Amino acid sequence: MRFKYVVLGLVLMTGSDVFSQSKPANYSQKIPGTNQEYGMVAIPAGEFMMGSPATEAGRNEDEGPQHKVKLDGFWMGSHEVTWDFYDLYAFKNMEKEMAARFPDPEKSIAKTDASTRPSPPYVDMSFGMGRAGYPAINMTQYAAIKFCKWLYDKTGVFYRLPTEAEWEYAARAGTKTAYSFGNDPAKLGEYAWYKDNSDGAYKLIGTKKPNPWGLHDMHGNVMEWTLDQYIPDYYAQKAKGEVKDPYAPVTELYPTSVRGGSWDDEAAVARSAARTPSSPSWKVLDPQLPKSEWWMTSASFVGFRLVRPFKTPTAAEIEAYYNPPLIEDY
Fold it and tell me: Which intervals hold domain Sulfatase-modifying factor enzyme-like (predicted)?
């Protein structure tokens, strides 16, 4: 029998302030012992209309009704996590580190790997599309969360995936249009890699124009994991009055919500309000039995970026986020 995790609850913004009343600055998170840095952009607290109007071209029913959402502030990655960054966690020096941490043969690499780092993949997970400077792909939501834990262990700084609301708020960057640059999809090529201009592959991060808040590739390149369970009528459930920091805890393995559209999607999928549910089909080419907890071989269009709340959660909340209870896989 296999198991998967479930986040039963998450207090997204609690604990003590880590900054003064002035707006926090953008910064780069350095990874100790490496030359890698990850740029973080300060996203101010505020409110916005989540979802899309009924008149928006390409709109799906799960994007409505529009409703007002208020959010606390956070930092968000200026771009998607790259292979350069992800490989530090997934592969490099794995055996050396595990041998140092677990010298007892009974606590071997094989026994610790399942709960600490991804198992070695059975194919090149970039599928030949490029590695240095390109977005990491094919990881499960579970693997993305465990990456955040690894980064916390390395830096002492709490990072996590964004909620759907945080993601859309940051993607819109104060705009009310279908895209962060307006409503005309003819201009999408200036800001995104998508089906019409990607030549069938993802591209180097940050090569298109950023949105008004300085975030690159929120439209296109690769879709991005969020924390939320995908619930088609979730907005209808939340559209009564003002909503503060909404979040749909994961209680089932599928579907969870990804955002942003990818190099393999039409323009409509890259809209700020567009929602995409994850699917078991994303593991259809996985030769392992049982299926991998870490890799989704048929999801070469899915990656992630990080957020850090302005207010640091308590130690108990951090532990609950990184080590949630398990639920049965199917």
Answer: 39-280
